[in-house]
Amino acid sequence: MDYLTFFLALLLMHEESFDKAATLNSEIVSAPGQKVTLMYELQKNWTAQQVTWERVQAQQIDVLSLCNLSQGRNYTSKYLRELWSTCSQGSRTSLLVLPGVLPTDSGIYRCRFESSTGENDTFAIRLTVTDGKSNILFVAGGTVLLLLAILIIPTIFISCRAANNYRSPTSTNGSMDDAGDEIYVNYPTFPRRQKTTV
Asked: Where exactly are the transmembrane stretches of this chain (predicted)?
């Protein structure tokens, strides 16, 4: 039982550290095959020395691009994806371009500016690449079912109400105690003549 508790505590710590590492500032949704440009402009008033673009995942963090601004050199990683990034001395804006994105490119991308004094500014973007499938059939089917329900339910309600109105022609306001009593009508009776038979 102690091993299970320890394992769950490790998972929880790992999940919490992942959430802290990837506080989102923006979100981009794209269709497959599109060129996506992730951009961040430094908000601080200090000069950046290094810019790093990373892809943050629950299991690992992949460094996509490392740009040393003081030397004007850009180092791209051996990430299995073609990408471009900008790197120029004195620049306050950094771009990461992903041409022809795929659903597997969905995830959190983080840009980090670092100064020579140790200060840093971090920006995280969630990229969501849709699978390209349309849910139009489900939307259309749901709309048709909703319209049918809107038409059928009032029709049934109105027809049941109309049937209840014509069911008993006598008033139901009278008491039920009188139901067994005979009703006498006061009208004169005329004597009948007997027919004579011949």
From this structure: 136-158
Judge if 50 and 25 occupy the same domain. Answer: yes
| pLDDT tens per residue, range 150-180 | 999 888 888 888 777 665 555 555 555 555 6
Q: Which has the closest alpha carbon to 129: 97, 103, 100? A: 103
**CA distance readout (Å), 196 to 100, 188, 190:** 117, 25, 18
pTM: 0.55
The model's pLDDT over 109-146, given as tens digits with 9 standing for 90+, comes to 998 988 878 888 888 999 998 876 666 777 888 888 88
Classify the C-alpha dihedral 162-167-169-175 as positive or negative.
negative
Contact 39, 106 (CB under 8 A): no
Where in the sequence is the domain holding 62, given as residue range(s)?
17-129
Q: Does residue 87 form part of some domain?
A: yes
